[in-house]
Amino acid sequence: MAAAVCIVLLSLLLGSCTRPPVREPVTLTLLEEWTAKTINEGREQELRQFTQETGIQVKLLPSPESAREKLALWQELLRSGTSSPDVYGIDVIWTRILDEYFIDLKPYFASDISHNFPVIAARYSVDGKLIAMPYHADIGILFYRTDLLREYGYSEPPRTWDELGLMAARIQAGERAKGNKAFWGFVWQGAAAEALTCNALEWQAAEGGGQIIEADKTISVKNPNAIRAWQRAARWVGSISPPSVVGYKEWDSQNVWVAGEAAFMRNWPTYYVDSQAVGSPIRNKFAIALPPGGKAGRFGTLGGAGLGVSRFSAHPREAVELVRYLSRRDVQANRSRVLSVPPSLPELYDVPEVLGPNPGFAMFRQAFRTGIVSRPSNVTGQKYPDVSEAYTRAVHSVLTGEKSAPEAAADLENELIRITGFKKGPPPGGSAHP
Ligand code: GLC
Known about the structure:
Layout: H1 2-17, E1 27-31, H2 37-54, E2 57-61, H3 67-79, E3 87-91, H4 95-98, H5 106-109, H6 118-122, E4 125-126, E5 129-130, E6 133-134, E7 138-139, E8 141-145, H7 146-151, H8 161-177, E9 184-187, H9 194-206, E10 218-219, H10 224-236, H11 250-258, E11 262-267, H12 272-275, E12 286-289, E13 300-303, E14 305-309, H13 316-327, H14 329-339, H15 352-355, H16 364-370, E15 372-373, H17 377-380, H18 384-399, H19 405-420, E16 423-424
Parallel strand pairs: 1-2, 1-3, 9-11, 10-16, 13-15
Antiparallel strand pairs: 3-14, 4-5, 6-14, 7-13, 8-11, 8-12
Helix pairs in contact: 2-14, 9-10, 9-18, 18-19
Alpha-D-glucopyranose binds at residues 33, 67, 91-93, 138, 194-195, 198, 268, 303-304.
């Protein structure tokens, strides 16, 4: 963390040493959430285009890898009141944590915002103020190996988590029998980090296990469906998933997957581009689907970030121009074509420029309407980081066998009552509270 802060402060310092005298073009600084190398190279290209169009220069700052480290850095910079960065990527779960530091974008984007998927647009508004403008969409998805599914006689990806378990075990056994001892059925994110909140929410929402804390402020996490979903995931560890999966973040799963050593991976669409890169061992051998489901449906966790303008920026007018450019229809379409990033504008899912290179993206049109589960960040506001950390700690203790699932759920419920002061109860339509 300290190293990350130093890198950013150093970049800012170097930036200011070379800052041009008056009347030279404005240079904005942008701090974003993406860490993938390929995507960042693509972003540099977009920013060069922006400079050509407007004369405004942009410096893209480096960012730490995990969501929680990023939030800590963002908070440190914003609390210091520094005039740079001008534009920040704001994770969909941070809107109510950071809102006081950002200008209201509504006057600039009042009509544009309505063109986005409503579920995405809604996450960036607080009390009528638009804190950030969406510029891409993100959702938890299942990547699967089409060649292996075919080879083992499966015509479609798993519809349920139980099916995934069976398919993964069979393919893993077959691949190992062929001599690939390092092969695993399923890789995902099991480290005690924000991504585990997203993974575990998908398992439990699919079974009717609720959203941890419901929109009406009910702490619903201690219920039999959630408990069973966690227990099933604990059985994956060391059987269809490597024992070290309990230390995996996004990149760790991606490394196993892109080496061709896993049949299934749960990750975000931003991991598509490296999987499909020229030279990737799995190029043209995989496809994507919603994560498997259960008795309540199939859900991917809503992720992503919008772009906000810091209220300390010395160049708010230019910063708004940058947000306008990065969220623009043609820029989003091009980003999809080149970097396989899903757009936040539903109308772009009809466009050959987007669907041609990414035929699998057709599913997102529906997924962002009916396949989303959201983390309880709106209802918990500033307390969300503590809530999410408590949840990942509980699920992680079940995955490592440190606690039984019923015990972890009971302890978590008490902790969430202490953190939020909310009441406990069953999830909507859910079974009786144990
Ligand atoms: C992705 C998502 C973001 C989430 C993070 C967790 O970047 O877009 O919403 O918080 O992963 O690691």
